[in-house]
Design brief:
It is a single chain. A hairpin with a 6-residue loop joins strand 3 and strand 4. It is built from no helices and six strands. The protein starts with 8 loop residues before the first strand and ends in a 12-residue tail after the last strand. The protein is mainly beta. The strands form two sheets. The protein has a four-stranded antiparallel β-sheet with strand order 1-6-3-4, with no helix packed on it. 10% of the residues are buried. It is globular.
């Protein structure tokens, strides 16, 4: 079985949920945006890791830079499955040249 790409960094585990900073309630349907600069002007995509069912290869699919949280404040993909977003902390994207 191929190993995952070491250039990707996983965020916290699926069991983690995000709470409202003021009330402490679960941030249901909250919006989380990812940026690559401290001025919040350059969007940075995050990725979902999966395995190709035909070849067993580990693949990373871009989720864009905006994720909407599910009903319990966790991350989910387009199919409603809870996921762990992966960061690619390099200037170029993984589809471009190496870091």
């Amino acid at each position: 079985m191929p190993l995952p790409n070491p250039n990707f960094i996983a965020l916290f585990p699926i069991q983690e949920v995000i709470h409202d900073k003021d009330t402490g309630n679960l941030l249901s349907a909250g919006i989380v945006e990812f940026f690559s600069d401290p001025e919040y002007s350059t969007p940075k995509n995050v990725y979902e890791q999966s395995t190709d069912p035909t070849g067993g290869e580990v693949i990373y699919t871009s989720l864009g830079n905006v994720l909407i949280l599910n009903a319990i404040g966790g991350f989910e993909d387009q199919n409603g499955q809870q996921i762990i977003p992966y960061l690619y902390p390099w200037t170029n994207g993984p589809e471009e040249s190496d870091p």
